[in-house]
Design brief:
alpha+beta, 4 domains
Length: 366
């Protein structure tokens, strides 16, 4: 029996806990739920397999917004990857990097469901984390309909369930203190951060024939995806690169390149580090940009008398993402990589924090 595409999409959307009249099967909230479900079914799953487990069943159901593009499958998988990165940044899904510490080479990246838990935001709202096998939500059934989905985030507003914190604790969820959940790295000047990685790279042994898939070489700090390109024979200097490996997604590395040849490499993540490989790479690139007097940027604009939007143009490391998720509503807006809407009482402190810790330059609409 043939099943119509729309009916199948509606059934999948409902099975993940969403109303088809309000959410499409390719909505970021629905994709996030599908990723959580896939991880609970198959813990220790690789990134490629995880993305395929969501993309393959849904590929025949995607709408015209994807089918009108030249490579719809690639675009759809890229979208799923971005949702997965958001989930791992906040700890909703746990990313584990298996590393050979003697070689400093990342061998495999696998994913596990986060333990059912929650964090209380500064405004009293509750941010849900983690999953239970076979369930769309790890919380009591009588407050499940109070959950607000904001992209990959699941939030219980304090006005909807004033005693949500106590209900969740009694139900068995683990409350994560905000300061423990964020856990930022030490403050450091950009030039000192860069020198530390340069010295580490200097001490590495010469490479054989390492061939990066891409390097982060473009100078337009407002166009992240456009900064990536293939290595050229004329390249000289030090670059963040992605290296193919036998298992999982390409590894992140800091590369010393001369005349298009990789002389030395230093792979992320660092042994013993609690941060993702991409977190380390993104922070190092921000330090590089700052030292070269071409810092990455954030743009501030007034939304209302009580709200300001902070637009950023490159990915943020998980420790900064988590801090801002506690305070702000994250959105996707045209022209920026991500946009965070803060209360005006919070925005100045957060701008200063991002400037000191991630060396972002600030511009503001008057």
């Amino acid at each position: 029996m043939r099943v119509e595409k729309n009916l199948a999409a509606n059934d999948i959307t409902k099975s993940l806990g969403f109303c088809p009249d309000e959410y499409s099967v390719t909505d970021s909230s629905v994709i996030a739920a599908a990723l959580r479900r896939a991880v609970t079914i198959n813990p220790s799953i690789s990134r490629t397999t995880l993305i395929s487990s969501v993309a393959d069943p849904l590929m025949s159901m995607i709408g015209e917004d994807y089918l009108s593009q030249k490579k719809p499958e690639i675009e759809f998988r890229s979208f799923i990857l971005n949702v997965l990165l958001d989930l791992t940044a906040i700890g909703d899904v746990v990313e584990i990097q298996e590393t050979d510490e003697s070689l400093f080479v990342q061998q495999k990246t696998v994913y596990y469901p986060g333990y059912p838990s929650f964090v209380t935001r500064n405004n009293g709202d509750v941010l849900l984390l983690g999953s239970l096998n076979g369930y769309n939500s790890p919380i009591p059934w009588d407050i499940q309909d109070k959950v607000v989905h904001r992209g990959p985030l699941r939030v219980i507003p304090t006005f909807a369930v004033p005693d949500a914190r106590h209900k969740l604790i009694r139900f068995g969820l683990n409350e994560i203190p905000g300061n423990a959940w964020i856990s930022t790295p030490p403050e450091e000047e950009a030039n000192k951060h860069l020198v530390r990685f340069d010295r580490d790279l200097d001490n590495r042994n010469p490479e054989g024939n390492l061939q990066p898939l891409r390097i982060l070489a473009g100078e337009d700090v407002t166009y992240y995806s456009g900064r990536w390109r293939a290595k050229k024979i004329t390249d000289n200097g030090r670059f963040i690169g992605r290296i193919s490996q036998a298992y999982g997604s390409p590894a992140w590395a800091y590369l010393d390149i001369a005349a298009g040849q990789v002389l030395k490499s230093r792979f992320f993540g660092s042994p013993g580090s609690r941060y993702r490989a991409c977190d380390e790479a993104w922070r190092l690139q921000s330090a590089i940009d700052s030292v070269r007097n071409n810092p990455q940027r954030m743009h501030i604009k007034k939304v209302s008398a009580t709200e300001k939007a902070v637009c950023v143009y490159s990915p943020l490391p998980s420790w900064l993402e988590r801090r801002w998720v506690l305070l702000a509503d994250k959105r996707k807006e045209t022209g920026s990589f991500s946009t965070y809407r803060f209360h005006t009482d919070d925005v100045d402190e957060e701008i200063d924090f991002a400037h000191k810790m991630f060396w972002l330059d600030v511009s503001e609409e008057i």
